[in-house]
Design a protein that fits this description.
The protein is 40% helix and 15% strand. It is an alpha/beta fold and 429 residues long. The protein is elongated. The protein binds adenosine-5'-diphosphate (ADP) and magnesium ion (MG). Magnesium ion binds next to helix 3.
Length: 429
């Protein structure tokens, strides 16, 4: 299978070659042909499987093959993403793939001055990448029109729902012509996603790709049983003594992320936190530092980390286990990107015993357990699960948290259990 055999045009093949891709990923191979045929497509595949190119390449092909010479270019394709980081990432991809095409594109998102964005829009763009808030805002101001949109893409649809963007999506749909091609891409495939798909897509082709090497097989997983109060000491020891350079650490709460980050910095480990309460500037800076190696440890919450393109991580550490088992698979999947193997370590205290059991049930295997001298578990600690948090609506979502999960293997009662626990904690992440 080659990109050429998928029927993509020469300028796109050239850009793909420049990018260094040799063969289409499974989800690309499945999604690109129906998109090129003009069909509505619902595609789901795990984070890191190349979904962006899965819609961007055929979208650019379609736009450029029936390009219209117009003096003022109307927006012909709209790509909606949940966060600014993702919008910026998708836009970077659009730019790269359209290098040899006569296609103009731009990106708009909130949290920054709108003026440069407005200027860019006024020059006319074919492809617009946007987050919902700023898009609706600028449309209301009359700065942009979506009345000529031919292709609509909803990227990271599951996260859109997580973040409570359902209403905004519905509003955006009303701004576009009824006759258009719709594409929906998602990392997970749940009942809520299916419902959303029914309301957006017309006779969709549904494609799915399950990772060839599931995280569970390629990634070396280990659990350290440890007393809660000794976790910070243990993680610092592991990172320093292992001389680990690029470590992604997950915490369950934003507060926990900040606290751990501070402690690491005071121990001489460069670290940065990334979560919903961080300013755009801080998040971009943290991510850039982590990618270029100047930041050794990135401490993240699940929602902040999902969808971010951080390739090839040798180490992922769960400072706390996620209370929703599927998040564990997402987290450790960060080490298995592009087929490279990695190590996933979880620090587990007594109160996380149930979470561990749920995770082992989901991945259908027992994880190797170790105890390090000086960092033993507390024999007197309760195994009662962590109490749900109180401050329910302090998160960054707009409205309800429609979180759901679509991984298989666990029984539905397991999933319901972990989901209801999760619901109580969502706003803290
Ligand atoms: P997703 O949206 O599924 O999470 P991305 O589109 O962000 O995944 O892609 C993840 C990474 O894989 C990116 O670094 C991207 O450049 C890379 N990638 C995408 N397609 C290919 C391919 N066909 N061959 C090699 N690498 C690819
Ligand atoms: Mg993506």
């Amino acid at each position: 299978m080659s990109f050429k055999s998928l029927g993509l045009s020469e300028p796109l093949l050239k850009a793909i070659q420049k990018k260094g891709y040799e063969t289409p990923s499974p989800i690309q191979a499945k999604a690109i042909p129906p998109v090129l045929e003009g069909k509505d497509v619902l595609a789901s595949a795990q984070t890191g499987t190349g979904k962006t190119a899965g819609f961007t390449l055929p979208l650019l092909h379609l736009l450029s093959s029936n390009s219209r010479e117009q003096r003022h270019r109307p927006v012909r394709a709209l790509i909606l993403t949940p966060t600014r980081e993702l919008a910026a990432q998708v836009y970077a991809n659009v730019k790269e793939y359209s290098e040899f095409l006569n296609i103009r594109s731009t990106v708009i998102f909130g949290g920054v001055n709108q003026k440069p964005q407005v200027n860019k829009l006024s020059q006319g763009v074919d492809v617009l990448v946007a987050t919902p808030g700023r898009l609706i805002d600028l449309e209301n101001q009359g700065v942009l029109s979506l009345s000529k949109v031919e292709i609509f893409v909803l990227d990271e649809a599951d996260r859109m729902l997580d973040m409570g963007f359902l209403r905004d999506i519905e509003r955006v749909m009303k701004l576009m012509p009824a006759k258009r091609q719709n594409l929906m891409f998602s990392a997970t495939f749940s009942k809520d996603i299916k419902k959303l798909a029914y309301s957006i897509l017309n006779n969709p082709i549904q494609v799915e790709a399950t990772p060839e090497n599931t995280a569970v097989e390629v990634i070396e997983q280990k659990v350290y049983r440890v007393a809660k109060g000794k976790k910070t000491g243990l993680i610092i020891k592991l990172i320093s003594e292992g001389d680990w350079k690029q470590v992604l650490v997950f915490t369950r709460t934003k507060h926990g992320a900040n606290k751990l980050c501070k402690k690491m910095i005071s121990d001489g480990i460069t670290a940065a936190a990334i979560h919903g309460n961080k300013s755009q500037g801080a998040r971009t800076k943290a991510l850039a530092g982590f990618k270029n190696g100047s930041v050794r440890v990135l401490v993240a919450t699940d929602i902040a980390a999902r969808g971010l393109d951080i390739p090839l991580l040798p180490h992922v550490i769960n400072f706390e286990l996620p209370n929703i088992s599927e998040d564990y698979v997402h987290r450790i999947g960060r080490t298995g990107r592009a087929g490279a193997s990695g190590e996933a370590i979880s620090l587990v205290s007594a109160d996380e015993t149930t979470f561990l059991r749920d995770i082992e049930k989901l991945i259908d295997m027992k994880i190797k357990v170790e105890i390090l001298e000086g960092f033993e578990p507390d024999p007197n600690a309760s195994t009662e699960p962590i109490k749900p948090g109180q401050n329910r609506n302090q998160g960054r979502g707009r409205g309800s948290n429609n979180r759901n999960s679509g991984k298989t293997k666990s029984t539905s009662s397991d999933r319901n259990k972990s989901r209801s626990r999760n619901r109580n904690n969502d706003s803290r992440r």
